[in-house]
Design goal:
- The complex is a heterodimer of chains A (398) and B (220).
- By secondary structure, chain A is an all-alpha fold.
- Chain A contains 14 helices and two strands, in the order αααββααααααααααα.
- Chain A is globular, with a radius of gyration of 22 Å.
- Chain B has one domain: Alpha-Beta Plaits, CATH 3.30.70.3270.
- The chains are: A mainly alpha (398), B alpha+beta (220).
- At the A-B interface, helix 11 of A face helix 1 of B.
């Protein structure tokens, strides 16, 4: 078994390589933390904009250090554990939520291939041949953090919140995975590096033809919806519906443990947006600076990162916009959307795009394939919808 | 657009002016009827108006006023009449600034200034004692270290009382029935109000409310 597909590890491991890996780990961790700090400030500012307010503007320039101030405050708050809590699990749960959130981010390609101290390496913490599976595994383990936090609190409302969380995340895991498959079918690989390479920049037309957002449009939309539901962000934040559940699964948490949950929640969201950029928006692909040589450090180091961050920023703005605009879904609406729409659409889309990809490779006549796929798509969709219970019918059965 | 029209609503707000006031940096004008921190008044001769009757404590819905009356020392009376407020404390961690105490007070001793910017760093500071609530020798409210006064906060502190007829008599609508202003002494009663010489000496300066005074009925 290889240690990974990263060129850094192909020629054996020596001291420099270890140092580079440690440096990359620290850099990625710092980047993710900074992104969270920035995102929370950004979210508060944008929501304030959308509500005719100013938002945080006291701590640091434009209030950018507000999140840091909040974090320091939480750090010095008294931690408390309820009497009825399962103390070990209660202490463990925040880390179960935060560590997978960080690990999931490690597979995201942030930039292109660069050379550090004579070693070629990717600007990406790890390049796993089955990178996307790591993401799915991490989001699965992250669910344990939320579930165990509610269960270990020894309190009713957190328990309700965590039961909601597990049901919601299980429901959307299916649509989420199928939406990812929609991109994987196009790329033909599970490795995030291969997926990004398949979307490499070849001119402006790449946005439409090479990036998977347009060829896999339905999968893209389903991925975004399912990703927001997976991370329990509005309008799918039933897990911490304040009006119903006090504060949700983290009601009993205080101080630094609460801060870790908060951190994990936003790390998850940023990771999901980064994965969306990787899968559908070409990751770091984008035009370099034409007036410089392709090997110039600005073109190899900086520009890919700039493009990645720009795309990430657009998606993050979208999440904030959704948060400011949409009211929280009711529980049955959530389940309806997940089971009756997203899963079935994603499933059909994967099959249809699979046929199209194979047809393209085999050189089948597209004027036959496309109508046939469309007809098959609609036929199966119609059958599925006809077989579904009508509104109110389930209540009659019960 | 239907279900997605909400996105347009939120996006449109981005281009509209902000409504936020930068409070510590800029102060918006003080509303004329704001209810703020209480002040205990004195008469022109320096006597305290409070007679320790505890009506304010009785009417307080938040139970934040603690009053104990005591007999006036005969040689050095603190207030005119028999009794004076020996203890007077208001707990501002509980006060809701409803002004019912001001309405209940028979001697106009307690009024509310418009001071709202006061923040404590401990619970003891939040409980104002009589020394802190009483006006100073110049008839001005004491400015405590943790309070942030603007000059407007002291002006026309009785505005709310003047604008509302405490007797409930429609013929006095819009007229001053009694002055609850901060500081020394009284304002003279305004036209249309009768001045009545009462046995209590200076306390009798209070103008009577037409038809609403049980004493008046007893005298007749």
């Amino acid at each position: 078994m290889t240690l990974g597909a990263d060129p850094l590890l192909r020629d054996g491991v020596d001291g420099t390589v270890v140092l580079i890996v440690v440096g990359k780990t620290l850099a990625t961790f710092a980047l993710l933390l900074l992104l969270v700090l920035f995102y929370i400030w950004f979210m508060r500012k944008v929501i304030a904009d959308m509500q005719n307010r100013i938002g945080p503007d006291q701590a640091g320039p434009f209030g950018m250090l507000q999140t840091l101030a909040d974090g320091i405050k939480l750090f010095f708050k008294e931690p408390s554990i309820p009497d009825g809590a399962d103390r070990t699990v209660f202490r463990l749960a925040p880390y179960l939520a935060a560590v997978p959130a960080f690990v999931a981010f490690s597979i995201v390609p942030i930039g292109g291939e660069v050379s550090i101290a004579g070693h070629r390496t990717y600007l990406q913490l790890v390049e796993v041949p089955v990178g996307i599976l790591v993401l799915l595994a991490c989001s699965g383990i992250g669910l344990y953090g939320v579930m165990l936090a509610g269960w270990a609190s020894g309190s009713k409302y957190p328990l309700l919140g965590s039961v909601r969380a597990s049901a919601q995340m299980l429901s959307y895991e299916a649509a989420f995975s199928l939406a990812i498959l929609g991109a994987l079918v196009q790329a033909g690989s599970l490795s995030t590096r291969d997926i990004v390479d398949a979307q490499a920049w070849r001119g402006v037309s790449s946005i439409v033809t090479d990036w998977f957002a347009i060829p896999a449009l339905v999968a893209f939309v389903i991925f975004l919806v399912a990703a927001i539901a997976e991370t329990n962000h509005p309008p799918f934040d039933l897990v911490e519906a304040e009006q119903e559940l006090v504060g949700g699964f983290n009601t009993e948490y205080t101080g630094i443990r609460f801060a870790i949950f908060y951190l994990a929640e936003f790390m998850n969201l940023i990771t999901m947006c980064a994965i969306a950029v990787t899968l559908f928006l070409g990751g770091p692909s984008g035009p370099g600076l034409g007036f410089l040589a392709a090997t110039h450090p600005l073109n190899t180091w900086v520009m890919p990162v700039v493009w990645f961050m720009l795309k990430l920023g657009v998606l993050l703005y979208g999440t904030v916009w959704i948060r400011a605009s949409l009211p929280r879904l009711r529980y049955d609406q959530l389940m309806n959307l997940g089971w009756r729409w997203l899963i079935e659409l994603a499933f059909l889309w994967v099959m249809a795009s699979g046929v199209i990809v194979v047809a393209r490779e085999q050189g089948w006549n597209r004027w036959v394939v496309v109508p046939a796929v469309a007809a098959g798509f609609l036929a199966v969709l119609g059958l599925l919808r006809a077989s579904m219970p009508r509104p109110g019918e389930i209540e009659e059965w019960v | 657009m239907g279900r997605l029209s909400g996105f347009g609503v939120t996006l449109r707000q981005v281009f509209r002016p902000r409504v936020t006031e930068h409070f510590p940096a800029e102060r918006a004008p003080t509303p004329a009827r704001r209810h703020g921190r209480h002040v205990l008044g004195r008469y022109p001769d320096g006597m305290e108006k409070c007679i320790g009757c505890e009506l304010c404590a009785g009417v307080c819905p938040a139970r934040c006023i603690h009053v104990r009356g005591a007999d006036n020392p005969p040689e050095e009376p603190v207030a005119p009449g028999e009794r004076y407020g020996f203890v007077y404390e208001i707990n501002y961690l509980r006060c809701i600034h409803c002004d019912l105490c001001v309405e209940a007070c028979p001697t106009e001793a307690i009024t509310e200034s418009k001071l709202f910017a006061f923040a404590f760093t401990n619970r003891a500071d939040a409980i104002y004692t009589k020394e802190e609530l009483l006006v100073d020798d110049d008839g001005r409210a004491r400015r405590l270290p943790w309070e942030w006064w603007s000059d407007e906060d002291e002006a026309e502190t009785g505005a709310w009382m003047r604008a509302t007829s405490p007797g409930g008599d429609a013929s006095y609508e819009g007229r001053v029935l009694w002055s609850a202003d901060l500081g020394y002494g009284h304002r003279p009663a305004e036209q249309g109000q009768r001045r009545r010489a009462a046995p209590g000496g200076e306390t009798g300066d209070r103008p009577a409310v037409a038809g609403g005074d049980p004493d008046e009925g007893a005298a007749a």
